[in-house]
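Subject: complex prediction, re-run

Hi both,

The earlier run crashed halfway through, so I resubmitted it with identical inputs.
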Amino acid sequence: MKQKTMFEKIWDAHVVRSEAGKPAILYIDLHLVHEVTSAQAFDGLRMTGRKVRRPNLTVATMDHNVPTTDRSAPIKDPISKKQMDVLAANCMEFGIPLFDLHHKLQGVVHIIGPELGLSQPGMTIVCGDSHTATHGAMGALAFGIGTSEVEHVLATQCLQQLKPKTMRINVQGSLPTGVTAKDMILSIIGRIGTDGATGYAVEYTGEAMRNLSMEGRMTVCNMSIEAGARAGMVAPDETTFAYLKGKPYAPKGADWDEAVNKWKMLATDPGAEFDTTVEIDVSRLEPYVTWGTNPGQVAPISGRVPDPETFANETDRRAAKAALEYMGLVPGTPINEVKVDRVFIGSCTNGRIEDLRAASKIVKGRKVSPNVSAIVVPGSGEVKRQAEAEGLDRIFIASGMEWREAGCSMCLGMNPDILQPGERCASTSNRNFEGRQGKGGRTHLVSPEMAAAAAITGHLTDVRQL
Amino acid sequence: MEPFVKITGIVAPLDRANVDTDQIIPKQFLKRVERTGFGEFLFYDWRYQSDGKTPNPDFVLNFPQYAGASILVAAKNFGSGSSREHAPWALMDYGFRAILAPSFADIFYNNCFKNGLLPIKLPEETIRTIMDNAVNQRGFELTIDLENNRIMDKKGFVVEFDVNPFRRYCLLNGLDDIGLTLQHSDDIAAYESKRPTWMCGITL
Ligand code: SF4
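This time it finished cleanly. Structure:
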């Protein structure tokens, strides 16, 4: 039999129907829904008199708009409130389970999927959100879709898909101390570019990936989309099974054993071929930060702001020039001299418990610089409770950071947490696009440890030298 | 979905790479729960001055010669970033029917087809030529003929383009792909009957 990649195994196992020259009809095991990209899809169903085929393979949460301050107060922004109300009404009408604002398991959609054991190896998982690739860390085929496709999945529990190509990113070496999964993925995007993986489903392999925790793998898979890949995945192994075991929605008892046996078969067969392979060695990697306005514009912390004139092609030169102008940076400036006004620790990239533990270790016993305001936003209600049980909240508060309720928050600033024009932020999120965190706001993407270090010193700082 | 067969229209040049969806339609406008009305917010941060109302005279879509443009030409990796379908909705609502670029981000590319907006990938040099013509020739128009996979101008410039035949067929006929999938409900049910029971239901 032909040797298959993990992607091919999962794909083949989900083809409901395929005809030459047409997209395959692919079955979807788990459909995650949130308030921003679903309203028009439910409207479409109503307009055509269609039903949700499998409400029980669908889970909704509220995350993008939710306030991260006192939840007992009424929501101030009437449009945000409307969007959440519309989601609640749609879930009620179509019988879809919903973690609403006040549910104790509420959180960012890509945090709660794995954390509750909803996202499992071998599944096809979709959500109207580009960072759905996060769930690929479980060994699933997970990708973001648009609202028309959300409607398609609601109505049919399937999607029409053209098969992407496969890319293997083989990450060798062991990460130096103080260098994290976030630095790894930032350096990968810097190397292959923001469109380097467009058209591909990526599988991450290699010693460095194997050694990452599930949280770290999720951080890497999460940002696959920033390199253009729709899906990023890691073969499930003992780390995966240990993470999933006992999670509320993971299989139990005999089902668990049967599931694990199936999951063990998912790994790419030895000798299976990928369309492209990229080799990376991370044994000398440094912490990475972005200096520009896309996640591929990165530099090591010991580096300098680049001179656009040194870029080989005209398009990149122009992009770098525009980025530096927007970012208010001068070529040649040492990266670690760039001052910050704000720090954001959170998001579906780095809002998990391990991220908060790592950041808290850096700030413990230290004070946030008087010129910086810093917020810590747990990725979910579960993460928040766990962090509080471990006393992390008190460490953050004692250092002068704010401790918030779960949500997307300043990752995209659809709620009140935004940067003011010209403000500069060290952020653990995934996008440094112009205006992403607020009009005129300037974002530097970093790891949680690096964000914490910047909060203490008031400028981008090599956490290993703190 | 509105079918796309053949259009002729003014070409507006947006000479930027990596135009991301946050730029195409900033998040503060994602809160509308309808599909319509996004056109006035298209490229909001570039199109208006800091008061959010006064048009920015330096932004290309505000140049009088591009009023009414229905074709946008841009540099590589157009539509990167978020999955928001609000991006094609905004482009359509503004009046665009086709986007020409050397490359597109996957989700955006996919979303366009679901809405009757045609994204066309062309070689970098061809895009450069079209961009230059749109900048230098006032009222520069192209005709896009999807039936024949061809783009033409009035002076004899012709290029062919590639698009997946099935997507092309859906676009030409304005087909609803949900309807197409639903024709195979039996296959879906047969597939479902074979799924393991432990994957069959979430209750809170
Ligand atoms: S945390 Fe940011 S990237 Fe993640 S789902 Fe929320 S808005 Fe999107």
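The first helix of chain B runs from residue 21 to 24.

- K.
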